Amino acid sequence: MKAVFPILLLFVAVILCPSGVGAQINHPAPAKQESAKLDNKIYLKTFDISALSEGKKSVQYVQVFSKGKKYMLNMCGKEGMPEGLTLSLYNSKRKLLGTNVINGKHQTKVTFPCSATGLYYLVYTLSENTSEAVQMDCGKSVLSLKFEEKD
Q: pLDDT-based confidence at 1, cuts 50/70/90?
């Protein structure tokens, strides 16, 4: 009798659950443009970085990455990549693993081959001398799983 109650409870929860629960992905306009560029990639998540437009110094997200997978992060604003937007990737011990700044230029994409499963910190910041117009352009960052095409 004790085993019947959990099964009955699960059955009732499934029946009473709203049917729209599975469709919670909501792509804002800039993220749709970046998602369209995902050739050999699978869309995973969109990070909202618009808080940088509201005067925040940084926006941080925690994400679990799996060993042996290759991830890609694309950053975009209303008018493309905001100049001065920096993404810093840290492991669970807060060791800096990489950034989107290469030779002083801010890249729109970062590819990360994961060597250990665990928590990773994604920290988005705007440089101090970023103009107000650029600050207002911060929008989204799209995370995707990258895979190699097989012939």
A: low
pTM over 0.70: no
Say how far residue 91 (Cα) sits from the centre of its chain: 15
How far apart CA 34 and CA 116 sit, in angstroms, is 27
d(CA 63, CA 65): 6
CA distance 146 to 59: 24
Q: Would the pLDDT of 34 be above 80?
A: no
Polymer length of the chain:
151
Condensed to tens digits (0 to 9), the pLDDT of residues 70-113 reads 999 998 776 666 677 889 999 999 999 999 999 988 888 899 99
The rounded distance, in Å, linking the Cα atoms of 31 and 122 is 17
C-beta of residue 83 within 8 angstroms of C-beta of residue 138: no
What's at 74, amino acid-wise? N
- Give the integer Cα–Cα distance in Å for 131 and 151: 46
Given 3.30.360.10, 3.40.30.10, 2.60.120.380, 3.40.640.10, which CATH number is that of 27-146?
Answer: 2.60.120.380
